[in-house]
Design goal:
- The complex is a heterotrimer.
- Chain A is an alpha/beta fold.
- Chain A folds into two domains: about 190 residues, Rossmann fold; about 160 residues, Response regulator (Rossmann fold), CATH 3.40.50.2300.
- Chain A is built from 13 helices and 15 strands.
- In chain A, the strands form two sheets. In chain A, strands 7, 8, 9, 10, 11, 12, 13, 14 and 15 form a nine-stranded mixed beta sheet that branches.
- By secondary structure, chain B is mostly helical.
- Chain B folds into two domains: about 240 residues, no CATH class; about 45 residues.
- In chain B, about 75% of the residues lie in helices and about 0% in strands.
- The longest helix of chain B is centred in the last third of the chain and has 32 residues.
- Chain C is mainly α.
- A two-stranded antiparallel ribbon of chain C has the order 1-2.
- In chain C, helix 1 packs across helix 9 and helix 2 packs across helix 9.
- The chains are: A alpha/beta, B mainly alpha, C mainly alpha.
- The interface between B and C is large, with 40 and 41 residues.
């Protein structure tokens, strides 16, 4: 037994002759909001990560992958301390997760200082990946879908729009990038509404939006509030006045879509992922995810986590199990693969995700509500950054 | 009762007893546990924050559900000071302390009157207002993204803030200790005694000539300075400030900490912070999604059993050990004297 | 404008039903029950399970939500809360926040962390046009139902024997006991009714306020504002405070969206400084 172990170790050591760090496990530390307002993000991502490991085994390039999940409650200083502890005490080789932008931004200097690759699986503000050369993103940026839907609106005879976004960084990002593209295309933004993040009631904002008589309302609210928004939209009878709802796909989040009722049918959004995406990879993914999670439907956060794990696995394969931060980042740059959401890649220059953005309409299919994709914009880079 | 020597009694309370010395020796011994420095740093900061709340809650009877207002203000001031003025940590600490002192002085007038509930809501309102201001003033505070680009200089020009949290923890612990000494001195002074008199019965206190309002304003300002320093430490050791430093959650947490540890004997906040954080860290590592349940259960159980039980237990242990010690040394003395005879 | 006023009214009414139980427990037993929102959440989840899984009609689910939350309230009152009355405020805060934490995690475990939705029957969806103003049917339903409830509560409080005993107990518990009023029983009943109303509010509010495991924490502050601004000595105080808060909130968001949060909090602070016992408290 001992001899065998020794020979395995010797073989591994020979393989990794260049590596100074030849331990047998690779530790991945995830900081996720498992409690509090952003909880569903954390739950989706951690479920997807577990699923990936279940489907693909826990050994890569001869190394065992060990994942540590910490609840940061979306609080930046807690997250920072936990990640720091994971790096210093648990000796994790790669960190990941990060449910909200402030958390990711707080981690930036830490990743740089410790040369630890940090895989962003959720937070969607453009600037994040500029803040450390060790950031890689597998989720999305808000401008990606906002700019696309703005272009689609211009082409589909929507001239006047009221924007309604949650009053925090991603909301401002979505609003600005939508407005830029929409007005450049000749559209007119009648009013810009900012809804407090903890707003319980959309009624006054909807009333204000309706009074401006736009062709459509551009909406970005965090995924949990999308359903409440859509219900109140129809409650005011706005669906009958011909005002359309457009926006990034958060408002018709797959996770919740089924409970929103027929009110949402016909809503057009642009997004990176739909549980209805027609591909073999996605069918298998959705089925396995539902089976492992009491019928919960995966959403765009889940694919962010799933692809994040994939990226880590593939990078380790490429470096032959070497966990040196710079080598891993180099391996991740430019990587391309077929995700459940469609073909994606990591931009070698910005380390940000390049992915298809789909235009979808909510329809009832086999008795359930789905975002059905009907147009595709291929390989969209982050427009928020391309501009600068 | 009439022949009790009051000054002597008060002085004897002021004297350091061995459990206190043991407590601080243990605290400084934590410096020898390098793998725990990061969480210990957080605990030291929370302890200072709790100490600040204890000063107004335990000694002046002012309940506050918005104490994060000062923590947050201190955090932002320290962050802005480091970015725009000077990266020296100690100067930043002073700046935050001064600013929070002013803020505490101004807001103290709001909490002079009213029942527990009224004060609870007013303090909460102030904290929520500040949070909203920080959110709106994104050009200054970074808004919801958080204040970034804070780089701290070396502490005393010598020690860099390292990845392992050694400098951070040492720094926070020393600041906590110094401020604790100051608070201890203060509450054992005539000023401190007049505060307890006000807490126990404001009318009677006023009747014997204590300037109630002025005392309350003074202690509230003093506590605000402490909270501001805690906030500054948080900023300097994490080099980041997020909007949540002003959140309701922070105010509620620190209140729980003080209640768990027990208010009104200075160590409550420190012990509470230690227990609360370690429990939280341990439980959330065990079950990241459902740890709130167990925290809740422990809180409920704690109240049903009696919150002062642990403290009473400690107290009786202290008495027991002291008695044993005295009887041991006493018997020794007696033994030697009989031996001599 | 009318629409806006009406939206605010409906929102305020909802807040009243959610918070009035809290106001009574606070006034009667001087007990700070931060877990009040947990009973509201229970009512909401019961309705969701009943309507979406068991196929119970919405209108039938409402009374069940009320009764179930009331029963839950009674159970907790008799087993746990009863030990808390003579403890300090700080103990009460610790105890009830502990209950909230447990409720949040337990619901998360059982029902999952995602937002829940209630499917309304068709006749409650959409809106009516009354004199040129659009009025949501569901909001109208809420206003009518909560208005009736408020009137009923006021009648019970003022005109029934139970009500006069309750008022006596609130005014001076010791004297009430001395007069042979069973304060404990009155309190248990009131607590149950308050929890039941909260449950009903949770069921009604899921559509407008949303429903997820963090509900009790999210709305704790709103309940407390209603109770402190309204005062705890009557039903009308919290009622008027709820309406004021509801309308100010909605109107503020409509007319000056940028300043809205400032308005609510500043208003609260000013009111509490001028009238520490609440805006509508009777002078003593």
């Amino acid at each position: 037994m001992k001899a065998k172990l020794l020979s395995v170790a010797a073989a591994a050591a020979a393989l990794l002759a260049t590596s100074a760090n030849a331990q047998q496990t690779v530790k991945v530390g995830l900081s996720l909001p498992m409690t509090g307002q952003q909880q569903s993000t954390g739950v989706q991502i951690s479920s997807a990560v577990k699923l990936y490991m279940q489907l693909h085994g826990d050994t890569v390039a001869g190394k065992k992958i060990e994942v540590i999940i910490k609840d940061d409650g979306a609080v930046p200083d807690t997250a920072k301390r936990q990640v720091q502890e994971m790096i210093v005490n648990d000796k994790v080789d790669i960190v990941g997760g990060f449910g909200v932008t402030p958390v990711a931004l707080a981690i930036g200097p830490l990743a740089t200082q410790s040369k630890t690759p940090a895989v962003i699986m959720a937070a969607g503000t453009s600037i994040i990946t500029e803040r450390s050369p060790y950031f890689v993103r597998t989720s999305f940026t808000l401008p990606q879908s906002s700019v696309i839907i703005a272009g689609w609106a211009v082409e589909n005879n929507i001239k006047k729009v009221v924007t309604l976004v949650s009053d925090y960084a991603p909301g401002a990002d979505a609003q600005a990038s939508f407005k830029g593209r929409f007005t450049a295309g000749g559209g007119q933004v009648l009013d810009e509404l900012k809804v407090p993040l903890a707003s319980p009631d959309f009624a006054p904002f909807l009333q204000r939006a309706a009074d401006a008589k736009p062709d459509a309302i551009f909406v970005f609210v965090p995924s949990g509030q999308g359903g409440t928004f859509m219900k109140q939209f129809t409650e005011r009878g706005l669906d009958k006045t011909g005002i359309k709802v457009i926006g990034p796909g958060d408002v018709t989040d797959d996770d919740l879509l089924n409970g929103m009722g027929d009110a949402v049918i016909g809503t057009v959004t642009a997004h990176l992922y739909s549980a209805d995406h027609q591909s073999a990879a996605n069918k298998a993914f959705v089925e396995a995810f539902k089976k492992a999670n009491k019928g919960l439907r995966p959403n765009f956060m889940a694919v962010g986590g799933y692809d994040g794990m994939h990226l880590i696995y593939e990078a380790l394969k490429k470096t032959n199990g070497d966990t040196d931060g710079d080598k891993l980042i180099a391996a991740m740059k430019g990587m391309k693969w077929e995700s459940p959401r469609g073909p994606i890649s990591i931009d070698p220059e910005t380390r940000d995700i390049v992915q298809n953005i789909y235009i979808r309409r909510v329809e009832r299919k086999n008795g359930e509500l789905y975002n059905v994709e009907f147009a595709t914009f291929e390989a969209v880079k982050d427009p928020g950054r391309a501009k600068k | 009762m009439s022949n009790v020597n009051v000054p002597h009694l008060l002085l004897s309370r002021h004297r350091w007893r061995w459990p206190e010395i043991a407590f601080w020796l243990a605290a400084f011994a934590c410096l020898l546990m390098p793998s725990k420095h990061l969480i210990l740093n957080e605990i030291a900061i929370l302890a200072l924050f709790a100490l600040s709340l204890d000063l107004i809650l335990g000694y002046a009877g002012i309940v506050s559900l918005g104490h994060a207002a000062f923590l947050g203000a201190g955090a932002y001031i320290a962050g802005l000071f480091a970015i725009h003025v000077n990266g020296d940590p100690l100067l930043g600490l002073l700046a935050a302390a001064a600013a929070c002192g002013v803020l505490g002085f101004i807001t103290s007038f709001l909490v002079l009157r009213g029942s527990d509930l009224t004060r609870l809501m007013i303090t909460l309102g102030v904290a929520l207002l500040l949070g909203e201001i920080a959110n709106r003033a994104a050009w200054l505070t970074g808004g919801a993204d958080g204040l970034q680009g804070i780089t701290m200089g070396r502490l005393l020009g010598l020690f860099e803030f390292d990845l392992y949290g050694r400098t951070s923890f040492t720094y926070s612990l020393v600041v906590l200790f110094v401020l604790f000494l100051l608070a201890r001195r203060l509450i054992h002074s005539p000023f401190g005694h007049s505060l307890t008199a006000i807490r126990d019965n404001p009318l009677r206190a006023a009747a014997v000539g204590i300037p109630v309002k002025r005392r309350l304003i003074a202690i509230y300002t003093f506590a605000a300075i402490y909270a501001g320093i805690a906030g500054a430490l948080l900023t300097q050791t994490t080099q980041f400030v997020g909007l949540d430093v002003l959140s309701f959650q922070r105010s509620a947490d620190v209140m729980l900490v003080v209640i768990i540890g027990g208010a009104g004997y200075l160590y409550g906040g420190l012990i509470g912070a230690l227990g609360f954080k370690f429990l939280q860290d341990w439980l959330s590592a065990l079950t990241p999604q459902y740890w709130h349940f167990w925290i809740g259960l422990i809180l409920v159980a704690l109240v049903l059993i009696g919150r002062d039980r642990p403290r009473r237990l400690l107290h009786s242990v202290q008495k027991y050990v002291t008695n044993r010690w005295q009887s041991l040394t006493g018997s020794k003395a007696a033994g030697s004297s009989t031996g001599g005879a | 404008m009318v629409t806006l006023l009406f939206d605010g009214l409906a929102y305020g009414m909802l807040l009243f039903v959610l918070a009035c139980g809290l106001s009574v427990t606070l006034g009667l037993m001087n007990f700070i029950n931060l877990a009040h929102g947990a009973f509201a959440m229970a009512g909401g989840y019961i309705t969701v399970v009943l309507t979406s899984r068991a196929g119970v009609p919405f209108l039938a689910a409402l009374p069940i939500a009320f009764l179930a939350s009331a029963a839950l309230g009674l159970l907790f009152e008799r087993t746990l809360y009863v030990h808390m009355y003579d403890k300090s405020h700080l103990d009460q805060v610790l105890f009830s926040i502990g209950l909230v934490f447990m409720a949040v995690a337990a619901i998360d475990y059982v029902m999952g962390s995602q937002q829940q939705f209630i499917t309304l029957p068709d006749y409650l969806q959409g809106r009516l046009d009354i004199a040129g103003a659009g009025i949501g049917r569901y909001r109208l339903f809420i206003v009518v139902l909560c208005g009736v409830l408020a009137a009923l509560l006021q009648w019970i409080l003022v005109s029934t024997r139970f009500g006069s005993r309750l008022r006596a107990a609130v005014d001076d518990q010791r004297v009430a006991r001395g007069l042979g009023i069973n304060v404990g029983a009155i309190f248990a009943l009131t607590f149950a009714a308050g929890s039941g109303l909260a449950g009903l509010g949770g069921a009604l509010g899921a559509e407008i306020l949303g429903l997820d495991p963090n509900f009790p924490l999210k709305f704790m502050i709103y309940f407390l504002i209603v109770v402190t601004v309204g005062g705890t000595s009557s039903i009308t105080g919290p009622f008027l405070a709820s309406l004021l808060l509801g309308i100010a909130d909605v109107a503020g968001k409509y007319y000056i969206p940028a300043l809205e949060p400032f308005i609510i909090y500043t208003l609260m602070i000013v009111v509490l400084i001028l009238r520490p016992q609440g805006l509508f408290a009777r002078a003593r």
